[in-house]
Amino acid sequence: MKKENRALNIVLWVLQLLGAAMFLMAGSSKLTGNQQMVQAFEMIGLGQWFRVLTGALEVIGAVLLLVPQTAFFGALLLAIVMVGAVIAHLFVLGGSPAMAVILLLAMAIIAWGRRGRISALYAGRDKEVTA
User: Fold this and answer.
1) How much is the mean pLDDT over the chain?
2) Sign of the C-alpha dihedral, residues 79, 60, 29, 92?
3) Contact 68, 117 (CB under 8 A)
4) Contacts of 36 (CB under 8 A, 6+ apart)
5) In 1-131, which ranges are continuous DSSP H helix?
6) Rounded Cα–Cα distance for residues 131 and 113 (Å)
7) What is the pTM of this model?
8) DSSP type of residue 1
């Protein structure tokens, strides 16, 4: 493995581990009905089902980040969730969207860095189908 590739892999794993920890904590607080989360989602106005859905997506995404073959999908899923979080902060909740923006950027970096696994995954499937 080239030195640059090794360094990128280490950076991506650090981001994945930190991101997984952050999203497991955030998702768990939504799923367990933390009062702050209940109030925030009440302000959003879509109902508490949206809090549960968001929490579930965060936990699922966090788990996907920890599996090499699914890290791309986890990062993509969580990036989409963070786009929603940024929009919610800007237009409904108020306050700073800085953490959501930082997590969005981290997930975009992971998705970009792990995109090669997708082509490798599909390249392997093409061989299985034609064989």
Assistant:
1) 90
2) positive
3) yes
4) 29
5) 3-31, 35-44, 48-65, 71-88, 98-113, 115-130
6) 30
7) 0.85
8) -
- Decide: 64 and 80 in contact? Cβ < 8 Å: no
In whole angstroms, what is the distance from residue 116 CA to residue 86 CA?
A: 28
* pLDDT computed for residue 128 by the predictor: 47
For residue 34, what are the CA distances in angstroms to 40, 64, 75, 81?
10, 24, 24, 19
Residue 52 main-chain phi, psi, to 5 deg: -65, -45
Token pair belonging to 14: 């650090």
Q: For residue 35, give both structure tokens.
A: 């009062």
Alpha carbons 59 and 95: distance in angstroms, whole number: 24
Indicate the SS3 state at residue 102.
helix
Asked if 75 contacts 108 with a C-beta cutoff of 8 angstroms, the reply is yes
Contact by Cβ (8 Å): 76, 19: no
Q: What angle do CA 19, 24, 29 make, to 5 degrees?
A: 130
Instruction: Provide the token pair at 13.
Output: 């794993």
Give residue-wise pLDDT tens across range 8-65. Answer: 999 999 999 999 999 999 999 999 999 999 999 999 999 999 999 999 999 999 999 9
